[in-house]
Amino acid sequence: MTPEALNTFFSICIGFALAGALVNGYQALAQRPAGFGLLQEGVAPKTFAAVPFLVFAAPFIIMRNTLRGVRVESRRVEFVMMATVIAGFWSMMSGTFFLMTLRAAGILV
């Protein structure tokens, strides 16, 4: 495995782990699951604060909703594959940003 591929895989894993931690932390505090409905609460500071949260939590929410849709709605395989690719790419981008932030702060070398 090349170093670039390993770095990409690590970014995807970190992105999904960060998303899962954020969503589970939100659920523990708010006593309800996080979702994209947080953006539908009108123009309020709470809605603007939800945007950065959802940027990093989206891969987990996308996969949770997709897997739930497979069981409840019997979604087609193509839809599940497309959602998985989108969530994986999103996770890679958020994981890369998180790792770059840690490197810039001097926490990672």
**What is the makeup of the main sheet?**
none
Radius of gyration over C-alpha positions, nearest whole angstrom:
15 Å
- Order of helix and strand elements from N to C terminus: HHH
Poorly predicted spans: none
Sheet-strand content, in percent, reads: under 5%
- The count of strands amounts to 0
Mean pLDDT: 92
What oligomeric state best describes the polypeptide chains here?
single chain
- Put simply, the count of helices is 3
SS content category: mainly alpha
How would you describe the shape? flat
The end-to-end span amounts to 21 Å
**Percentage of residues in helical conformation:** over 70%
InterPro entries: DUF6949
Pfam families: DUF6949
Keywords: Membrane, Transmembrane, Transmembrane helix
Transmembrane segments: 49-67, 79-100
Give a structural overview:
This protein is 78% helix and 0% strand. It is mainly alpha-helical. It is flat. The mean pLDDT is 92. Keywords: Membrane, Transmembrane, Transmembrane helix. The chain crosses the membrane at residues 49-67, 79-100. Pfam families: DUF6949.
How would you describe this structure in keywords?
transmembrane, membrane, 109 residues, 3 helices, transmembrane helix, DUF6949, flat
Short description:
The protein is mainly α. It has helices at 3-30, 45-73, 77-104.
